[in-house]
Design a protein that fits this description.
194 residues; magnesium; Rossmann fold; hydrolase; 35% helix; globular; alpha/beta; single chain
């Protein structure tokens, strides 16, 4: 079994522009490549899990989402690090158009995308992580049975409680960016191996 880091996409890997609707809007955030390289050097699978309700709302197609993921995959590979998989949820429980306006099992913080990855990649969830810029990502980590790191967003920081994290020892796991999150994982792994 292998461990994984499940990564949110918008606001974690690339700038969050609301509903990404043009390839020209893709801008990788600072230090993301360095963070991904560090995680990969520790042996983690890198798996993107992202809610893309813009599909349900008719803002863009699943083909567009796949195209964005293909471009990101090539971009990261060209910079020396491979993303192992991209999973996305095109649904929204109350808005949008059929067949996407459903209460699915894949929309974060539900664990459908992670469950698929566990089956497809033989993942040890207890030694895996979720990194994202929303409390939904931290809730996903808790629901999946792994640890979570919240990337610092001022609007989320005011409402954080220790109970939001997988366990209270992870309350300090609020980091500025993906690279700091990767360093935190490295320090956690080092502490557990001694």
């Amino acid at each position: 079994m292998r461990s994984a880091v499940f990564l949110d996409r918008d606001g974690t890997l690339i700038e969050d522009v609301g509903y990404l609707s043009s390839i020209s809007q893709i801008k990788v955030l600072p230090r993301v490549v360095d963070g991904l390289k560090l995680l990969k050097s520790m042996g983690y699978l890198l798996i993107v899990v992202t809610n893309q309700s813009g599909v349900a709302r008719g803002f863009f197609s699943e083909d567009f989402v796949q195209n964005v993921h293909d471009i990101l995959g090539r971009l990261f590979k060209d910079n020396g690090v491979a993303i192992d998989a991209f999973y996305y949820c095109p649904h929204h429980p109350t808005e949008g158009f059929p067949p996407y306006n459903v209460n699915c099992d894949c929309r974060k913080p539900k664990t459908g995308m992670i469950k698929r990855a566990i089956c497809e990649y033989d993942i040890d969830i207890s030694n895996s992580w979720v990194i994202g810029d929303s409390l939904v990502d931290v809730q996903l980590a808790r629901n999946a049975g792994c640890k979570g790191i919240l990337l610092n967003r001022d609007d989320d920081l005011h409402s954080i409680s220790k109970e939001s994290f997988c366990d209270t020892s992870l309350y300090e796991a609020v980091k500025y960016d993906l690279f700091e999150g990767a360093l935190y994982i490295k320090s956690d792994v080092s502490l557990r191996s001694h």
